[in-house]
Amino acid sequence: MTAARPDVLDFLLTRRSRPSKTLTTPVPSSEELGPLLAAAARTPDHGALEPFRFLVLEKPALARIAGLIGETGTRMGKLPEEIAKQKMVYETGNFAVAVIFTPKESPKIPEIEQLYTAGAVCLSLLNAALATGWGANWLSGWASHDAEFRKAAFGLAENELVAGIVHIGTETVAPPDRPRPDVNALTTWVSA
After folding, report:
1. C-alpha to C-alpha distance for 90 and 68, rounded to whole angstroms
2. Long-range contact list for 28-32, CB < 8 A, 24+ apart?
3. For residue 182, which phi and psi values (nearest 5 degrees)?
4. What are 106-138's pLDDT values in tens digits?
5. In 3D, which of 175, 128, 164, 166 has the Cα closest to residue 12?
6. Can you name the residues that pair with 137 across neighbouring β-strands?
7. How far from chain centre, in Å, is Cα 157?
C-alpha cells in the first residue's frame, strides 16, 4: 500500500471550478505553466500513445477565436443569446489551454480509450491549476465541436477534436459550493 495523502483527498473532496468569467490577470507564465502541463500529461494512457497535445491560448488568440463565433453560430442555427454567451467566454478570457485529442492508429488501443485519456488530461490540468492556487475552469462549448470552427480557430487536422479548454487565471471571487451527487444512489456493489 502506498503512503496515505489525506491532504490530496481533502483537496479532491473540496475542489471547485471557478467560472471563467471570474478569472483575471495575472495568468501563468510559461515557467508556471510547465509543471501544470507535466502533471496533466501524467494521466493514465493505455499503450503510452499520448493521444493529446496542448494549445496555449493567450489573450489575442482568444479574441481572434471570439470573432469566429458569430459566423459559426449562425451557420449552426444557434439563437443570438447562445452565440453571445459562447462569444463572451472567449472575449473575456485572458488565458486558456486547449487540450486537443489526437487519436493514434493502434491495433490494441481503441480510439474510445484514447479519448478517455484526453478527457483525463483535461481534469488533471484543471486540478493541477487549482492545486497550485490558480482559478480554473474546464469548458468546451458547442462551437468547439464544429469541424469548420476547429480548423479555423485552432488549426486542427480533420481527425483532431477539442477535448476541453481549461481557462486559468487569478480568481476574483470564491464561488459557493454547489449540490454534489449522492454517491450512494449512484453506487452498486457487486459481490458475485
Report:
1. 10
2. 28/95, 28/129, 28/134, 28/168, 32/132
3. -85, 100
4. 999 999 999 999 999 999 999 999 999 999 999
5. 128
6. 167
7. 19
Q: What b/e string do you get for 51-62 counting C-beta neighbours within 10 Å, with b at 16 or more? A: bbebbebeeebb
H or E stretch covering 45: none
Report the distance separating Cα 6 and Cα 8, nearest Å: 5
* Cross-strand pairs, 97: 56, 166
Amino acid of residue 42? R
Residue whose C-alpha cell reads 443569446 in the numeric block? 81
Contacts of 72 (CB under 8 A, 6+ apart): 143, 146, 148, 149
Picking from 136, 125, 131, the residue whose alpha carbon sits closest to that of residue 174 is 136
In the chain, the amino acid numbered 25 is T
Written as nine digits, the cell of 66 is 471570439
- pLDDT band of residue 176 (cuts 50, 70, 90) is confident
- Give the contacts of 47 (CB within 8 A, at least 6 positions apart): 106, 108, 109
Torsion of Cα atoms, 66 then 72 then 74 then 79, to 10°: -60
